[in-house]
Amino acid sequence: MSLWGWLWLLYCLHVPGCVRGLYGGGKGACRLIAKQVSGSVYRAGDVVIGGLFPIHVEAPLPEQEFRSIKEYSTCTIFKQRAYRWLQTMIFAVEEINRDPALLPNLTLGFLAADTCRSEGITLGAALAMVTGKEASVVGTECGTTPEVPVIIGDAHSSASMVVAQTLGPFDLPMVSYFATCACLSDNLRYPSFFRTVPSDAFQARGMAKLLRLLRWVWVGLVSEDDDYGKFGVQLLLQELQGSGVCVAYSEVLPKLPSKRKIRHIVDTIRGSTARVVVAFVGFTGHSGALMEEVVRQNITDKQWIASESWVTYSTIAAPMNLPSLAGTIGFALKKADIPGLGPFLTRLHPDGDYQKSDPFLRDLWEEMFGCSLGVDLSMTLSSRRQCTGSEVIREGESQYADVSQLRASYNVYKAVYAIAYAIQDMVACRPGDGVFNGGQCPDIRKLQPSQIVHYLRGVNFSTPVGESFHFDMNGDPPASYDIINWHVTPEGTAEFVQVGQFLSSEGSDDQFHIDMDKVVWGGGSGDEVPVSVCSADCPPGTRHAVQKGKPVCCFDCLSCAEGEISNTTGSVECIRCPERFWSNPDRTACIPQLVDFLSYSDTMGVILSVISVSGATLTAGALATFLYHRHTALVKANNSELSFLLLLSLKLCFLCALVFIGQPKPWTCMLRHTLFGISFVFCISCLLSRTVVVLVAFRATLPGENLMRYFSPTQQRMGISLCTLIQVLICVLWLALAPPRPAERRGREARGPRVVLECEVGSVVGFSLVLGYIGLLASLCLLLAFLARKLPDNFNEAKYITFSMLIFCAVWISFIPAYVSSPGKYTVAVEIFAILASSFGLLFCLFAPKCYIILLRPERNTKKHMMSK
């Protein structure tokens, strides 16, 4: 079966009564008894271009029984705007036919049909065009109407999809002027679909840029229940992902909306806190009903964002709607001034010739002038007056004759020229250089649709108004939008003012510009940009906390945590302050943290330094006293050499406390604990040696025993050195394996956060061994001194050692919990206090009584007194 046979079969399956007409007429009676619902306008030509226009927007109910032909099945609700599109197509065809440079030896014709904005009627009209089997053709020879190889249309995305899917397998090209659904850019599903109107993908991108620019983060969406509305909203939502813009509601206007449904949608708009409403709706009566309800409910606090379908639609911008819709902003198709179109539109007159060639003229005339043409029973019963025939169409006085906003009309104009230039390229083909089999060129008298598709893809021309035009690989044109703002004139009418422009195309950067000074804002905002947010921006020092179960734009403001700031309004997250910085009380700025350590400038540091130096001075005084009176009985009896070593070690114990004061540095951290550990071990070793000597001297009571020969001064020095050497080895291993080092610790006080500089022990084991060894020697010394506490005579050295060790052990046992629980620099202060307290305990208990006798009671500093009981 041929191409036309398949299309004829499709058409017959689509139109009721077709098959019965095919088989019921007999020979010579080829008769199609199906009746077209819509009318058509036809003019013959060498190449006939089809056109699909929604002259009416309400189709009659379809025939359900298929037993009879429904009479008077006409479409209703005439649209002047769509009729202007049809006339623009006729104007472009006539202009091309007059052009001696473009298709000079070829005449273009046209066949335009009314689609009634119905998918079924649109498909039926398209199939009738391409098969040449219109219902109006009745006679013995079927197919007298020439086949249409290319169609301009449709204006409706859903209808364009239906027709494109049906005609696409046969490579029949369509060039739409108003079908903007991004789904039609799918070159695999719609390989022969072209359009002169940009895809909604670009419009959605521009809308998203506008919303982000004006910081409208809480918006409502209203769309129609068709592919235009569904895909438009879907694309907008995709563009808004991750931008911080949230949707408060998304309402869908059904194809057959009831008053209850429209009232529900408007109630949602009125009750929402979103002040911005994005409306992806068409120019049908449904959108008009929606706006009527908005005006009825007196909703005047909303900023409307219009899609290209209705932003320049004067019917919606009627004066009665402006209290609610003034300030509307939207994206309109690029406007152009087509020379000569205005007079062409106003040439019409309802005389006999025009009415015969144009079935829509009567509807136009009656719609425009509010009168009735001819005799009609329904009109007689109505209040309409009879038209006089003297009415004149004047430019700009009606929507049809308004040429100030030629946008969709300009797209129709470009579609005709695109087809003409494609045919021109086919005419210019030289035999042998063609792109088809064997270099063949197309036969202009028998154009194949696939050939037109091929040449349409390559057209690149300038329109008579000077715009360069071409199709991309998906059949889409470059996107160019005017940003329109609705102003109210002093007369109370709407004025569509261009306030910006948006240019976009695949593979290039977008160009978005809007002149904010020209914009009149909606929602009663006047000169100020309306604010549309779910939650007000959080003040500095706080962050967003998304409310449970709500979009991210709805949030509570929580104060930033300590150490974090937010110095701008509307911060989503708080920023962590850098090292050594902290947040101020308002959480708006990072301030340097207080650096805390025990320094010589602190009061406590000064006091401890004075005490340390005082203890060292007292020790030096005691040493000088003992040295000066070294020949006296008391000094000799106390082993002067051990006394000198003990006083020297005590002086080191006092002075080592000074190393703990000041900013920790690597060398001071290593010196602190090692000097402390070795000094105290040296001191206690001397004390342990003295205790052993005293105990042995007074406990060796058996005859012939001479135990003192084992505790001579040399052995005592060796014992002290051995005990001290063990501590030195522990400290060397500690420093070699894991030495103490400076460290920072976060702290807090009343004045705010702080950085505590301290010395980490490095190795807990090493530190424990140092302290444990000191404790072991001290405990052993205490035990031996306790055993020798009741020595005879006036020699009370064991008692003094016992008391000094008790004080030493008590101090260091108390030191452990105090050291652990003390904050910041007080940890170091506690350690210094333990060093000084234990050192003073040893100094006073061991040397204060002796110095008292030496300096104040010299009479008791005799051998006789010491040996007496």
UniProtKB/TrEMBL annotation:
Residues 1-21 form the signal peptide. It holds the Pfam family NCD3G. One of its GO terms (cellular component) is plasma membrane. It is a multi-pass membrane protein. The chain crosses the membrane at residues 606-629, 641-662, 674-698, 719-737, 764-788, 800-820, 832-856. InterPro entries: ANF_lig-bd_rcpt, GPCR_3, GPCR_3_9-Cys_dom, GPCR_3_9-Cys_sf, GPCR_3_C, GPCR_3_Ca_sens_rcpt-rel, GPCR_3_CS, GPCR_3_vmron_rcpt_2. It comes from the Eukaryota. Keywords: Cell membrane, G-protein coupled receptor, Glycoprotein, Membrane, Receptor, Signal, Transducer, Transmembrane, Transmembrane helix. This is Extracellular calcium-sensing receptor-like.
